[in-house]
From TrEMBL:
This is Polyisoprenoid diphosphate/phosphate phosphohydrolase PLPP6. Signal peptide: none annotated. One of its GO terms (cellular component) is endoplasmic reticulum membrane. It is a multi-pass membrane protein. Gene3D superfamilies: Phosphatidic acid phosphatase type 2/haloperoxidase. It comes from Myiagra hebetior.
Amino acid sequence: PGGAAAAPLPEEDCMKLNPSFVGIALSSLLAIDLWASKRLGVCAGEGSAWGSARPLMKVIEVSGHGIPWLLGTFYGLCQSDSSAAREVLLNLLFALLLDLVMVAVVKGLVKRPRPTHNKMDMFVTISVDKYSFPSGHATRAALVCRFVLRHLVLAVPLRVLVVLWALIVSISRVMLGRHNMTDVLFGLLLGYALYGVVEHCWLSPATAPALFALW
């Protein structure tokens, strides 16, 4: 009958004319992140605003790469004749491996593509390196920075240099166009948190005698 009320449409057929505030906020933040990251990618190519500084930025990129850190730590571990130094180096090796695994897992889950202005000429990449979130360099920089400041006795100027290195490596990721700002910020937070895991699982002759027997 004409006066009968129409049956309500199923929820999935209804147009959502009022998207949630959270959805709008996240979309806006993502748009700002992409816009600002592109503006800050001043070394993304030779023709960019600071293109002449790109070679220097790439040297900084290598300084935060996982392979030099892994090889250097392993070499130091093999050459060390001090039990205390071997303990520190073994835990640094554990930290670096944990960092690689966690970054690879998160990148594989999130699968955020690299910025469109990125030039794929990175130093030694693996399959998940086609993804952007999080920045492995930023994660490693934060992790190594905390580790070095906690376990190496350094003069104040050297401690400042370590912190500056971590910041410069992180900033260079956006300047080179490798990452968006949120990739770097999350990477720094993840690296900071991973150091806590390393400290909690600290390897010593008492907790991991088999490992120390190898050295």
